[in-house]
Amino acid sequence: MNSEKHTKTNRPRRTRSFLLFPVLGVLCGCFVLVLLAGFLEAQVRPDRSEPPALAPPPQLKLPAVEKRALRNGVPVWIIEAHEVPIVQVSLVVRAGAGTDPPDRFGAASLAAAMLDEGAGARSALQIADTVEFLGATLTTTSGFDAAAIRLNVPVQQLDEGLAIMADIALRPTFPAADLDRLRQERLTALLQARDDPASIAAVAFSRIVFGRTHRYGTGTIGTEATVKAMSVEDLRAFHASYYQPLNATLLVVGDITADAVVPQIEQHFGAWSPTAAFKEPAAVPVARQLTGREVYIIDKPDAEQSQIRIGWVGVPRATPDYFPLLVLNTVLGGSFTSRLNQNLREKHGYTYGASSFFDMRLSAGPFVAAAGVQTDKTAEALGEFFAELNAIRMPIAADELAKAKNFIALGFPAEFETITDLARRLEELVVYRLPDDYFEQYVPNVLAVTAAVRQAAERYIQPSRFAVVVVGDRKTIEPGIRALNLGPVQVMTVDQVLGP
Amino acid sequence: MRLRIAPLLIAVCSLPVSGQAPAVRPLEVPYEQFTLANGLTVILHRDASVPVAAVNVWYHVGSANERPGRTGLAHLFEHLMFEGSGHVAEGAFDTLLEAAGASSNGSTDNDRTNYFIDLPANALELALFLESDRMGYLLDTMTPQRVDGQREVVKNERRQNLENRPYGMASIELDRLLWPPGHPYSWPTIGSMEDLTAASHEDVIAFFKTDYTPNNASLVIAGDIDIPRTRALVEKWFGEIPRGPVVQPVMAPPAVLTEVKQRTIADQVRLPRLYLGWLTPRAYAPGTAALDVAAAMLTNGKNSRLYNRLVYETQMAQDVTAVQRSGALGSSFLIVATARPGRTVAELQQAIDEEIQRLRREPPQAREMQRVINQIQASFYRAMERVGGFGGKANQMNAYYFAGAGPDFFAEDLARYTSVTAADVQAAVLRWLPPDRRVELIVEPEKAQ
């Protein structure tokens, strides 16, 4: 996994400071060393004419994943990590927002949020009290592709943690009063999102690219109407359908051994049995692609910045072009030195940061390029965005490509540092059904990317068909945006785009 | 005192225990510390769990060192540190690091400016070259154009985080009300727009010469490193940088609130928000651990007193947060709550005051105390896993060193919390959170909304 480009030929170097000082340090003690260091270094300055050559990259010893299963068939994947006396147990369930019923957008998210609001014989307050007393964290979450219950607990308290985790996963009670409380919390959050230009831009962009009926056109928590409509029965039905042993995987990472932990988990999750009615969740249909460029200005009177989102329907996580797109996006807007950030931030100072992102889900999620730019430079910023989106379709210089590949490949070990990191990486394997050798092949796959980047750019970055969403002070920005002639311009209020 | 994870959970010993032999490990962070002839303090810690390393530099200067008229200079300067130096072309700092699989960032607060480079272990010398070059040779290539470029970026950072964010301007008002005029914490670290406009190339040069000196900095390197070799590399790259003048300590007028200071500001928001603020002792001073425990007891989790009453039971608030912001010259304790539609900040304030009054009258329950302390304890263990970033061990070691403690203060720091008693919490609330000497700031919806 070495970098072709940046492992420079070794030049003769002054090595005195390398060899001499450790020896002196041993012989003379720190005080003398400090004096000598100053004296010698004053005469022997390091050669700064070129950056030091990199030593060969370290080999990451990938942690071994031990795959077991409970008697009811639930897979249990285990990584032993003994640095701190903590263990994380994650239950991943294929019950994301992609499985929401068409008239109940937000069911998956609300069902997950309700799991710890009452379970088994325990109330919401009892669950919270027990978890905190254990020094644990126990969270429930749901994205578009999956739900997860994550227990992070001092290893000595694992058994008690598992007991409460099994309660909330298998025996939630969905108390009506707690549902009403979360409903009000979510309705208020939807209301507050309309205060924040960045939130408005994100919600409006999804709505415009995917439409009102496609699941990806609405955020995971749903709309005011669906949140108001959600009943205890809806959530019970959702839980019964999808929180099933055949639809779940347990991940255990931390200061345990596989042999000891499996019987412990069996004790709490072993009695969980599938129901006859279980069906694999249906796939989210691939959204219809945009055909022509349109511009939407959403008025936020007197805003000091314009929030810009540009893009269209991207790719699913299972795309064969995953690695070319990873490299491509790193060049375009995936790192600090990426083209969008260099142009809009470093060269022009229009923004605090510009970026781009392929949000890859089970079905094709959005590709989006984004920035908040100062109001009086909105049109100029849009011009630079499109200059870069067009330029990325041209051949990329070899050193720029190598930089991006090395940034991803050489930075890979840092993604395995903590127990939580490891558990997240395993979740990714589970949710997207990635092959067993995915981590082993990750770096070679990144480094193997060459001409495919150009093909990926031509196919997936087509600026003439992108939606352009700008949330800002209409009276100031509209004339400049119209003068760019990007395409038809629609001016909307926040309520028009998000509903009253 | 060496703390272990076992003794603190005595109260749950009767619960079924796992089949594991309990893993009992102290919060040990062995390190080597030395000072170069130029005054640079260096702290090395080996943790080879993954082949990465963290290079973490603190310059002991922040916005508190600024003078009125030039607020925001320390943070603007932080941006300029990434723009190139004598032997590093503009843009090359980040390009070289990314090509090596490394990432970097920096942050500025009232008291200090920190920089980190997280890297694969093989790139250590590259990071030391870059870090030493900007410590030694930043001004060689500094130009007015470079200052102008980052001035615009910083103004957009301010617009994004303050002007264009709901409730964003409240933090500026709060600090202006909490601290007396002229106090170095009374102005925002990001600076005023006028002062950012006024900051000059000459200001930047002067700031570097007085404050960005090796004798005003500390360097922590943690991770998969060889200690003797790393020491030699540090001496090689940093040893030649000349010592700077003695840095003058920041002088601050006494800060005491003697009355209730009320203010209401308007914003483009739908829901009103209440901020209550008090002045509390400086970081690590007696009483601060008890106040951190009080903050958690008030708003962490469904059973915490304010969350339970405002968000869970009465549902008059959408959110409530209590936090102590610790600083070298003094700290502040904040309670922030947002009213639900149809509810008022007056209702929030009354409920909050009743709950604080209850803590003044009687000490917290034993289980409440243990719940908070067990959470704090576990968070110390989780924090031992990562070496880099703003939340990693390297940065925390620098923080402890900066505060005048040993870089391995972890166990003692935890002991500050585990030794807090219910009576301590009551006493701290009584002394430091009085109802008649505080700031009451309200952000209310603009009339047009």
Explain what the structure shows:
With 500 residues, chain A is an alpha+beta fold. Chain A has three domains: 1-8 and 16-56, no CATH class; 66-269, Metalloenzyme, LuxS/M16 peptidase-like (Cytochrome Bc1 Complex, Chain A, domain 1, 2-Layer Sandwich); 294-498, Cytochrome Bc1 Complex, Chain A, domain 1, CATH 3.30.830.10. Chain A contains 18 helices and 14 strands. In chain A, helix 10 (322-333) crosses helix 13. The radius of gyration of chain A is 27 Å and the shape is globular. In chain B, a hairpin with a 4-residue loop joins strand 4 and strand 5. Chain B has two domains: 32-238, Metalloenzyme, LuxS/M16 peptidase-like (Cytochrome Bc1 Complex, Chain A, domain 1, 2-Layer Sandwich), CATH 3.30.830.10; 260-445, Cytochrome Bc1 Complex, Chain A, domain 1, CATH 3.30.830.10. In chain B, helix 1 (73-80) crosses helix 4 (144-163) and helix 10 (305-313) runs antiparallel to helix 11. Chain B is globular and about 60 Å long. Chains A and B meet through helix 1, helix 3, strand 7, helix 4 and helix 5 of A and helix 2, helix 3, helix 4, helix 8 and helix 10 of B.
Mean pLDDT of chain B: 93
The main sheet of chain A comes to: 6 strands, mixed
Task: Identify the CATH class of the largest domain in chain B.
Answer: Alpha Beta
CATH architecture of the largest domain in chain A: 2-Layer Sandwich
Main sheet of chain A: which strands, in order across?
Answer: 1-2-8-3-7-6
Query: Rg of chain A, please?
Result: 27 Å
**Model regions low in confidence, pLDDT < 50 over at least 5 residues of chain A:** 1-43
Number of strands of chain B: 11
Number of helices of chain B: 15
* CATH homology group of the largest domain in chain B: Metalloenzyme, LuxS/M16 peptidase-like
* CATH topology annotation of the largest domain in chain B: Cytochrome Bc1 Complex, Chain A, domain 1
Which structural class matches the secondary elements of chain B?
Answer: alpha+beta
Helix content of chain B: 25-40%
What is the general shape of chain A?
Answer: globular
DSSP summary, beta strand count of chain A: 14
How many helical stretches of chain A? 18
